Amino acid sequence: MDRKTIFCGISLLLPGLLKAQERPNVLIIYADDLGYGDLACYGARGVETPNVDRLASEGLLFTNAHAPAATSTPSRYGLLTGMYAWRRAGTDVAPGDAAMIIKDEQFTLADLFKNVGYKTAAIGKWHLGLGEERGKQDWNHKLNKGLKDLGFDYHYIMAATADRVPCVFIEQDTVANYDKSAPIEVSYKKAFEGEALAKDHPELLQLKSSHGHNMAIVNGIGRIGYMKGGGKALWKDENIADSITVKAINFIKENQANPFFMYFATNDVHVPRFPHPRFRGKSSMGLRSDAIVQFDWCVGELLKTLEDLGIRDNTLVILSSDNGPVIDDGYDDNAEALLGEHKPSGGLRGFKYSAFEGGTRIPLIISWPKSMRKIAKSDVLISQIDMMASLSKLIGSKIPKGEAIDSEDNLNSLLARGERSREYVIEQAANKTLSVRTKEWKYIEASDGAPMITWGPKIETGYLPKPQLYKLSEDMEERNNVAELYPEIVKAMQEILIRERAKSN
Question: Is 11's pLDDT higher than 60?
Answer without folding.
Answer: no
